[in-house]
Give the backbone structure.
Amino acid sequence: MLNLYRPADLAAFGLGVVPTFRSPHVTLVFAHLETGLAALRRAPHEAWSNPYHET
């Protein structure tokens, strides 16, 4: 499963978004793991099936 987020939505939930210079990838930054993961779960996103994931 791929969760796709808009950078502005992540920033609105207190997550730092740092470009990796390899678009469209970014690094997410947060001070505390549990708080950051909770914010990530609450932030608006789209869930897509990953066609390249092998089970």
Notes: Helices lie at 7-12, 33-42. The two ends are 12 Å apart (CA to CA). The chain has one domain: 2-48. Residues 2-48 form one domain.
